[in-house]
């Protein structure tokens, strides 16, 4: 401002009127030592006539040039003029400086101006958080007290809160009140979903050797009707187990498989059985795996997918036009859980050969594979019903990038008490929300980005509430939600485990280094679990049964599930025995201490993600994963080309080139991050957008989310994935009827371009790339 005033004063001296824009064109007089200065003056309006465009400016007629004549004044006059100009310059500078200070006092800052527009009474906006990271973590740990956790556990523990029930709705209303008390602007998301429940009258039945067994447990989304077939014991029902039986020349056609619960999900067991033409599946909890009592019923679902299977790929809002569509993951064969006592009675009467070694190591007195006379009838009469469910949300708004947010979620419903399955997670969700809200209102914490807290319904039917929300707001969420943290089943034992997107490994590691062990406060959790390789000690694959899976593989949001668990699977999930008393028995020390530690991990990860200038996600982590997958594919291709099963015209160079492009782009972004100016908000936002796009860009754009919802080429499922490509190479190697060379070439092309497109997006703007001709 001071310089503008000084320039105005000088212009008055030389020209008698102010000029708003001055352009100097200096040309040297080549004929002598004297320099001639040609000064051209033009107004802003002249420069920007027409409002835009270089062409318009070039076509504008230039104003006449004003050329100063050689100065004929005396040295004394020049001296006085110089002194006058200097005095005027000093006066102009002082006037500008004082007026600038008055303007600073009178005008609100950028942060204050944004704050004045916030009509919901939230905390004042500032562009720079006022607390350091150590202060933030110390505050959070102090706010998240075991006393408050125990109070919430007691408040949210009820006996009956099945999805869509009065108990489920009561918990939803309670959460709404809590979020409202914390000034989190709560809202709900309502869906009308179709689920399968047990028979409205009577029960499902199993008949074996003239003995009938009525089973109160059930598997939602099972095929219905009555099926008869020869019974075959198939261990856990994994594909490796079925291949082992095939090696014994056992025919599966029309067989009813008897399998143990565990290892893989109920849905995968039934899908495996259907793939070998079995007619039905019976699933029981073996006493060696589940100490739940002989008469305990088991509940679950067998949809090989997530969400409402009758609205695949789109949400079940009330105004949705429901076409006659259903998920490809719905089974067509009946499936039923049976009690341990029923399994013992049936196995005791079975005949046939002994099972393979190790299959008979269980809690039943006898194990046989089954004979030709072991006929069983399975009758499933489940009914399809429509339920209204509510997801409940609250938000803590960010102060710089409010439209970028991390989501923390927990399942609210359960088949029975669901203490470990849902009560602990819901209580922890509330306590993390309360703690961070108090940090903002009482201690001056100012997050850069937002945190959304979500309570899901119908989780027991396969993450229905969460998936319907994702389907309903997919186009918005995969651009703005940059991480999901799941609290489902968060405490069932003393050992910490996690499953996550590779992008989140670094933030998990750094958080474990800052959180104390629940058993020894003098040690960090990282030092307790890490050993020589912390990833192998802590990280597990994210499976379809993980409630974070649809966020990761369907929506492309980097996700993590954290849990304290034990070596054996928690036996009370899916039963009426999931109570506080039974959880206390399974946890070796204080339950509230474990819950607090889990809350610190989840909360500090969320705080780190919303606090830093740049989002703490490591895009280079995928390079090694892509490289290992491409190396396996290359090895298979070389072997098949050597045997003549794959033509040598199939080249690996393009897939390797795409891998190289991603590697270079991720390294470049890492370099940009290291050299970035954290005070440049626009630069930070550009980099954050590049980071946020990686997971989304690894979703294959070449398959329909309705037919193949889990489109992630590394963590999803289907022929479009790198795993599907390897499976096809294996099918060619084994001479399978499903082998198709044209399809293989198509898989190579589309997978290659998905990786290349992700690399292109990561590399930056289109004008920064050069695809050589």
UniProtKB/TrEMBL annotation:
Task: Please give the Pfam families that the UniProt record associates with this protein.
Answer: PA (PF02225), Peptidase_M28 (PF04389), TFR_dimer (PF04253)
The Peptidase M28 domain extends over: 391-584
Q: How does it sit in the membrane?
A: Single-pass type II membrane protein
Q: Where is this region: Disordered?
A: 46-72
Q: Which Gene3D superfamilies match?
A: 3.50.30.30, Transferrin receptor-like, dimerisation domain (1.20.930.40), Zn peptidases (3.40.630.10)
Q: Where are the transmembrane segments?
A: 78-98
GO cellular component: a single term:
external side of plasma membrane
- Every copy of the Transferrin receptor-like dimerisation domain together lies at 651-762
Major localisation:
membrane
| One MF annotation (Gene Ontology) recorded for this entry | transferrin receptor activity
> Where found in the cell?
Cell membrane; Melanosome
Q: Where is the PA domain?
A: 230-293
Query: What is the recorded post-translational modification?
Result: Stearoylated.
InterPro entries to which the protein is assigned, alphabetical = PA_dom_sf (IPR046450), PA_domain (IPR003137), Peptidase_M28 (IPR007484), Peptidase_M28B (IPR039373), TFR-like_dimer_dom (IPR007365), TFR-like_dimer_dom_sf (IPR036757)
Taxonomically, the superkingdom here is: Eukaryota
The entry's keywords: Cell membrane, Endocytosis, Glycoprotein, Lipoprotein, Membrane, Palmitate, Receptor, Transmembrane, Transmembrane helix
Does the record bear Ligase in its keywords?
Answer: no
Single Gene Ontology BP annotation:
intracellular iron ion homeostasis
Summarize subunit and interaction data from the UniProt record for this chain.
Homodimer; disulfide-linked.
Function recorded in the entry? Cellular uptake of iron occurs via receptor-mediated endocytosis of ligand-occupied transferrin receptor into specialized endosomes. Endosomal acidification leads to iron release. The apotransferrin-receptor complex is then recycled to the cell surface with a return to neutral pH and the concomitant loss of affinity of apotransferrin for its receptor. Transferrin receptor is necessary for development of erythrocytes and the nervous system. Acts as a lipid sensor that regulates mitochondrial fusion by regulating activation of the JNK pathway.
Q: So what family is this one in?
A: Belongs to the peptidase M28 family. M28B subfamily.
Protein name, please? Transferrin receptor protein 1
Say which species the protein is native to. Astyanax mexicanus (Blind cave fish)
Lineage from the top down? Eukaryota, Metazoa, Chordata, Craniata, Vertebrata
